[in-house]
């Protein structure tokens, strides 16, 4: 069982943070770190039943409290049974907690891929999202992105740098091949 939590306390009012959550996966998205990661795409409005994805991970919206929380149930890759989502928690005047949680049972190949690669990539991506939220809500200029860990840098080096945002999208088969086929690692 995986229970992965990232959170950030941000000096902002509830409504400002809630607007970030309402825009998630839309063309106006100011939360998802699409400047360094595959963009989050939804096949419609952020509402129950809407399908979405980022990179090889796909899901469906299965829980939503507008402006407060959104939860996505995994539909791919195989072996990930569970959900991930964001939640805004008010802490007092001008202070909120933005939290990302992932809960999953792992089966088959996912038992190996999560601890060796996807966990590290997930953690770096979520921290980038929380950095974006903090910069956006606290009125700061976007910070210089934090450097990736050596492991995350190596994992990201297994595939060529994207030439465009569309090029960030890749299939699960590509990810598996690049992670496990030694012939592809030297590209």
Structural class: alpha+beta
Sheet with the most strands, sense and barrel status: 7 strands, antiparallel
Strand order of the largest sheet: 1-7-6-5-4-3-2
Count of β-strands: 7
Q: Nearest-angstrom radius of gyration? A: 16 Å
CATH first level: Alpha Beta
Order of helices and strands: EHEEEEEEHHHH
Percent of sequence in beta strands: 25-35%
Overall tally of structural domains = 1
Mean pLDDT: 89
The tally of helices reads 5
- Tell me the helix content: 25-40%
Instruction: Kindly report the CATH topology.
Output: Alpha-D-Glucose-1,6-Bisphosphate, Chain A, domain 4
Architecture overview:
- With 187 residues, the protein is α+β, with helices and mostly antiparallel strands.
- It has one domain (2-185): START domain (Alpha-D-Glucose-1,6-Bisphosphate, Chain A, domain 4).
- It has helices spanning 14-22, 110-137, 150-157, 172-180, 182-185; strands at residues 2-10, 41-42, 51-54, 57-65, 69-76, 80-92, 95-106.
- The longest helix has 28 residues, at 110-137.
- The protein is globular.
SSE inventory with pairings:
Elements: E1 2-10, H1 14-22, E2 41-42, E3 51-54, E4 57-65, E5 69-76, E6 80-92, E7 95-106, H2 110-137, H3 150-157, H4 172-180, H5 182-185
Antiparallel strand pairs: 1-7, 2-3, 3-4, 4-5, 5-6, 6-7
Core attributes:
Alpha-D-Glucose-1,6-Bisphosphate, Chain A, domain 4, 7 strands, alpha+beta, 187 residues
